[in-house]
Amino acid sequence: MDTTLSQTAGIADHGHGPAKGLGRWLFTTNHKDIGSLYLWFSLLMFLTGGCMALMIRAELFQPGLQLIQPEFFNQMTTMHGLIMVFGAVMPAFVGLANWMIPIMVGAPDMALPRMNNWSFWILPFAFTLMISTLFMEGGGPDFGWTFYAPLSTTYAPPSVTFFIFAVHMMGFSSIMGAINIIATILNLRAPGMTMMKLPLFVWTWLITAFLLIAVMPVLAGVVTMMLMDIHFGTSFFNAAGGGDPVLFQHVFWFFGHPEVYIMILPAFGIISEIIPTFARKRLFGYASMVYATSSIALLSFLVWAHHMFAVGMPLAGELFFMYATMLIAVPTGVKVFNWVATMFHGSMTFETPMLFALAFVVLFTIGGFSGLMLAIAPADFQYHDTYFVVAHFHYVLVPGAIFSIMAGVYYWLPKWTGHMLNERLGKAHFWLSFIGVNITFFPMHFVGLAGMPRRIPDYALQFADFNAVASVGAFIFGFSQLVFVYNIISCIRGGERATDQVWEGSHGLEWTLPSPAPYHTFSKPPLIK
Amino acid sequence: MSSAEYYVPKQSHWPILASIALFLMALGAGNLINDLSAEVSGGIGVWLLLVGAVLMMAILFAWFRNVINESMSGLYNEQMDRSYRWGMSWFIFSEVMFFAAFFGALFYIRTLAVPWLGGEGDRGISNMLWEGFQAQWPLMTTPDMETFPGPQQIVDPWHLPLINTILLVSSSFTVTVAHKALKVDQRSRIVLWLAITVLLGAGFLVFQAYEYVEAYHDLGLTLNAGVYGATFFILTGFHGLHVTLGSVMLIIIWLRVLRGHFDAEHHFGFEAVTWYWHFVDVVWVGLFLFVYII
Fold first, then answer.
1. Closest CB to B90 among A114, A179, A225
2. CA gap A157, A140 in Å, rounded
3. Model-level pTM greater than 0.90?
């Protein structure tokens, strides 16, 4: 990305700086404030969902039931998944988008700033509603984050009604957030910032926002059908009335598969920003990155039933979804190749963001390969619903999505706070996380292949050793996040002053702004040549 | 008239209040529905829902008034206008996908699930569950007639639904006539043709309500009447809700026209409503084809 500025960053006062007190955060229309709110909320949810994960791993440390009841265990796996997907990963990416997209494209703010505030402030209420179900009669949702009917309809606790409305609220939030991001990218680019000059983080978010608008309404549709089945006597998912429980899975995964790309495409964008900076080379194959991301997004609408190979589909369906899924490996391979080619012959340095980005490339690729194994329908009959699946999606989500978020936070933190972060602590956080993640999730491949089912509080003795190892790793990973939190807070409070460019090899509009970035930026759009 | 800089509003109270209202509505609706199913009465659910809904309407009124005032005082430039255009287009796309979920469910049920349930193909195992079940569409006899008594009759497409099709399709034309009148600034014609559009929409809703009453009382076509009733009511019901919303939006722009809002060049608020109205119309054509006729 070569964006030469003809005039230096337009810093102007809109006539209103940050307000004082709590009102600043409640009523703000500023994309940086809202970005920070999203990021703090996401961190809180990440730690909450993490505590639930640690409860799960503590119970699974040994075979037998020690700490929690199976009913509560099921609520923990369900809530852990829902909170991490909708509360941690998605809001973190939206937070990064809010902070960075306007200053990357030279816009004064997001296109619709008040709606932007609403998109965020729905979330704390939605999660209050969802987490409160744990304290309701009959307990919280206990049917897994995929909430398959009839577990989530006929056999669900009464609190499922509140779960449904909480999902509706999250859907409103996501759709409005995505509309805002698309409108900003399409309409608020500075003069001269053509589409093919956009930073890749912006490109990947444009495509992600499209996916969000396309599939969040489908999620709303499926939970609405659940609500009707539970309370109003319909039989969408009940064969006794001519419906079909498998219909639930089709509709859910039509949402669910694009959803997993919603959680990884912005990660691709972040990594594509970081690697060129620390390799001190331009990104290899910019255009092919854009086309690869687009093809991944389009293919994501055609592969949903690969989550359902074991459900009893016609052979033609199994084959179609198998080959379509394997096709996704091609554009993904293009991306991994481009990252590696960017580093090739680069003058690389290994600051904390780069370490996380490198770990992303390696570990996400491992997760991608296990995904390829799962895509093979006949092999999936063996892997289906085992810990192999758990290992697969945690490899793409934890050292994939989450590592990219951490990489992004470390990368842009100096721009946000005006202080360099503590490299020593950052590296400590990286190595503890890297080791912790692999100790946690790598053994899950083995127990999964050996046949340990997912979502159970107790297991056969032969799985004991690997489970104990995984639990130790989970606690290492979990507690090392406190280093992350400490590092962020100390970076906000002080530290070495950051320059405007922050990193030696950084390019792009955001690095032309002072650090910390002023409250209002680019009120007059810069001219990009 | 319009300013050169992109307008970034100051702080706003509306979004956080709207979030609170939404939360009250969700909490209230959840409590109310759970109480109804458990046959408990006297819960607070209905009050929470009501307070939330009233609050939400008041907030939306105030929020939109705020935006309209800003627009009228010339704070919005052309770029702002484009933001609203993109916003509305993608919002309508999200609505399309919402209906796509239900249409998809209908097609899956009709062409795959019900025939499989009747033993077609190598999915005959379902036939063992409900022995003697015959696949048919419309599904008049459900596998378990005690729990889900199938409908005795279905709605005849060539009476009320046909009239409703004529009403809604012609309302798409009348709203276009109003829009054309706005472009040449003939206020009285705008008022007239918008009023006709609203009346056509209201007529549609009245007939739709009548059709529902008939379905429940005379045809045995209910939410509980197996998957035919389920798909029928979820598709027509959500469409009806959207027509209601569209009619409210039409009334609002009608009142705004009476107050002298909009001019020949600047009237995206008006145009957005016409977009929405056309969308509602197109969904109906799909419904008329796939739910009623075929």
1. A179
2. 7
3. yes
